[in-house]
Amino acid sequence: MARLLALPLTAWAGQVLAPDLPPQQVEVLVNGSRPEELLAKADRLGPLLQNESKLGEFGYTKHPKKELRWDDLRSIIKGRKCSTEKADEQCGELVCRKGLCSFCTRDSECPSLHRCVESSNGRACRAMERKAWESAWQDRSECLGKSGQQLGRGIAPRFLAMFSKNFPVGLVFIVLVEFCERTCYYTFAGTQKTWLQEQGYSNSQSSSINLTWAEVCYVCCFFGGWLASTRVGIFRTIAGLSLTYALGTYLSAFAALPQVESTGLYLLGTFGLVALGSGGIKPNVCTMGANQFDPADPEAEQNRASFFLYFYLTINLGSALSHAFLSSWATSGVPGIGVDIEHGYFFAWMIAASLMLMAFLLFVGGKSSYRKAGKEDVEEEPVVQLFIQTLRQGSGSVWGKLAIFGWVLIPVFIVVSIVNAFVESPALKAGAVAMAVACIGSLVIAHLKNPSWLPESDVRRCLDCVPLLLVGNLFFGILQSTISSVFQSQACQMDTRQDHTDFSFEGFQYSGDFFRLANPVTIVIGTPLLDRVVYPFVRKLTGKEVGIGFKVILGFGFAIGAQLVAASIEFARKSSPVLAVASHCAPMVDGEHVHMSGLNSFYMLAPYAMVGFGEIMVNPVLQHLAYEGAPASMKSLLQAFNLFAMGALPNGVASVISQALKSQVPNDLNQGNLPLVYFINSAIGVVGIFAFFVVLRYSPTRAGEASAKVAKSDAIDTEL
User: Fold this and answer.
1) Of 189, 371, 468, 568, which has the most beta carbons under 10 Å away?
2) How far apart are CA 368 and CA 365, in angstroms?
3) Does one domain contain both 108 and 228?
4) Tell me: the pLDDT tens digits for 585-609?
5) What is the C-alpha separation between 604 and 514, in angstroms, rounded?
6) Is residue 141 part of a domain?
7) 209 located within any domain
8) Over the stretch 137-190, which tens digit does the pLDDT of each residue have?
């Protein structure tokens, strides 16, 4: 292999394309490996190339007529210049043949990169071992001079070179942006409730405001998705809104200073700038990451499926950092470095703000490494206008009117749910619940009937996925929302002391949000475990691929089980003695924090972890479904809708539920009935399972095809 890489370029080009070499040498050149290495992998790669006549089957039929430049050789090997005048002039009758399978029939792909193998699903295409010359080109730490210098004099760090073998280098910067953004987001999500309680808000209202803030963040996804589809573009959208995000976080940190403590400034920073920045970049970071994979690469679909899975894992790494350190530092300070309790929130939020500023700088600094969008990626049409125009065209039918009614209700419900979080009104609560039911029901029913009232178009194909995304995200999101509301309230009224012999108020206590750490840790550990062990085992046991239905049922099952486990812990907590220690993160009663019960708060790790297992199975599937279900012109918009359905809608509904059940969740949980809330959530989850499968059964063709594609991609990902 080393000798091959050291060959001068002219000799190398001639040998690579020569059909008359000894069989063994052809194997080395075509496969980019030594024969003994190939023999060890023969069971996976299929039959080896055994004689020179086979070389023609891989697309090369003649010697080049003269010396090739490296760029020309690389392009020919990748099968992209087989029909150009320049390639014909240099290579004679060099032909890029097609026809091995569906993956090998695209104009931009060459059969020399593939093997067709028989599988349980018929003929499938599997990428061969990457050739030495292709690796050398893609590895940006290596370069090849015109006179045939040896490879390996690059300047990129080795870890970037290793990363680029499967994922493009630009993904490093994109994923780091997501990591910093999620750390910042979850710092606010875990500390906002306790800070508002410090300002005099009740247990249920602080939970409702926290959920409403999350709703506003996800509503802003529409703005981000729209802005990226305009001339501003996806890069400038992410860059500008990342900076906005950082500025909002700094403003909120300033508002938390003891000498300031301004609720108005805080809400301006979080509900204004942070929500706009967070929601604006969410759909675009995901889409830009997925677009880094060249559609001409035969491994693109497979690597993209892995990207969505591990992108979700990155989200939870940021979440873990927030829950493990920043949330507890906010409520108890960091005495070891001189940060007292009074400055805890300021300190934690300044760290989050600085991370977000770093994300902005990293993203802009990595601009040169991003793949420029091709025609298949660029959204050239005004997608929002097309969306509205399509709905108007179908307004003459009953289903069209019902769909328009549902879409119009969305902004109305958002406004009502936000007002409901700040204003106490039974009529408002009832109206919000009625609007939620009418809105969701109208959209699901109308878009299940898309073929009967919408003409075939990109908008129609995009809308075909709406019912599945709505139902799956809504019901699971309601269960998931408990980790930032009632789970946290329950943990804060348990024994959160680090030192159980310390009965002073100044002693360090874990924040209730600290135990949410079990959620991302479970996801970080469980993702590769499910992907590499559990799913392959189930496939081997049943003889079938692990489908969407299995993942959704199991995911909902874990989330419902978490509600029941939390209810049993609450029964045990209420029967435990109340300690003479006020909890730092509990609400205020009569001028002081509610005292904690004697039950160890670490028991709450169990329900948090169970929700995490559920998330692994449900959320990546729905996120991938949104990407695969969207035409190229509407990927950002459908990702924005998916994030709205994943965050805004369930958080808005959960906020309304929180206010409706406030009598069961008073400031002192010993005076309420928290298990009843968990039982209601469990019932909602059971309804959600049935609703999802009904919608899946009657989904339009496009959604069904996307579901099948997601299942197939996930199956390939678990297999390789």
Assistant:
1) 468
2) 8
3) no
4) 999 888 889 999 999 999 999 999 9
5) 10
6) no
7) yes
8) 233 222 222 323 332 333 334 334 434 456 677 788 888 899 999 999 999 999
Sequence-distant (≥ 6) Cβ neighbours of residue 173 within 8 angstroms: 362, 363, 365, 366, 369, 370
Same domain, yes or no: 110 and 233:
no
- 498, 500, 503, 506: CA torsion to nearest 10: -10
The pLDDT of residue 574 is 96
Are both 438 and 538 inside the same structural domain?
A: yes
Q: Which of 533, 475, 512 is nearest to 603 (CA)?
A: 512
CATH number at residue 472: 1.20.1250.20
Is 0.85 surpassed by the pTM of this model? no
β partners of residue 497? 509
Alpha-carbon dihedral angle through residues 197, 201, 203, 204, given to the nearest 10 degrees: -140
Phi/psi zone of residue 15: left (φ > 0), alpha (ψ -120 to 50 degrees), beta? alpha
3-state secondary structure of 589: strand
* Alpha-carbon gap, residue 702 to 697, rounded angstroms: 13
Residue identified by tokens 């009758």 is 93
Q: Judge contact between 312 and 714, C-beta under 8 A.
A: no
Choose among 13, 24, 92, 75: nearest CA to 54: 24
Q: Which of 85, 119, 135 is the last residue of a domain?
A: 135
Beta strand pairing status for 114-119 and 578-582? unpaired
Q: Which of 135, 160, 178 is the last residue of a domain?
A: 135
Half-sphere exposure of 20 (CA within 13 A, CB side): 3
* C-alpha–C-alpha distance, residues 695 and 468, integer Å: 6
CA gap 713, 302 in Å, rounded: 6
Distance separating alpha carbons of residues 628 and 622, to the nearest angstrom: 10
Please tell me whether residues 615 and 530 are part of one structural domain: yes
Helix, strand, coil shares, percent, the chain, to 5: 70, 5, 25
Domain count, the chain: 2
Q: Which of 231, 308, 391, 396 is nearest to 628 (CA)?
A: 308
> In 229-279, which ranges are E strands?
none
Q: Measured between alpha carbons, how far is residue 483 from residues 102, 182, 477, 593, 605 in Å? A: 45, 16, 10, 21, 11
Co-location of 679 and 562 in the same domain: yes
Helical segments of 502-601, H only: 518-529, 535-542, 548-574
Q: Is residue 562 part of a domain?
A: yes
Rounded CA gap, 360 and 363, in Å?
A: 5
Residue 619 is encoded by which pair of tokens?
A: 């959320």
Are 627 and 554 within 8 A, CB to CB? no
- Residue 647 CA, chain-centre distance (Å), reads 12
The boundaries of the domain holding residue 129 are 2-135
455 in a domain, yes or no?
no
CB atoms < 10 A from the CB of 453, how many? Answer: 20
For the purposes of burial, counting CB atoms within 10 Å of the CB of 525, is it exposed (0-12), middle (13-18) or buried (19 or more)?
middle
Q: What are phi and psi of 598, to 5 degrees?
A: -80, -10
Same domain? For 41 and 178 the reply is no
Query: Are 115 and 178 in a shared domain?
Result: no
175 and 128 in a single domain? The answer is: no
- For residues 235, 237, 240 and 243, what is the CA-based torsion angle, rounded to 10 degrees? -90
Specify the 3-state DSSP secondary structure of 411: helix
Residues of the chain with pLDDT under 50: 1-164, 375-380, 715-720
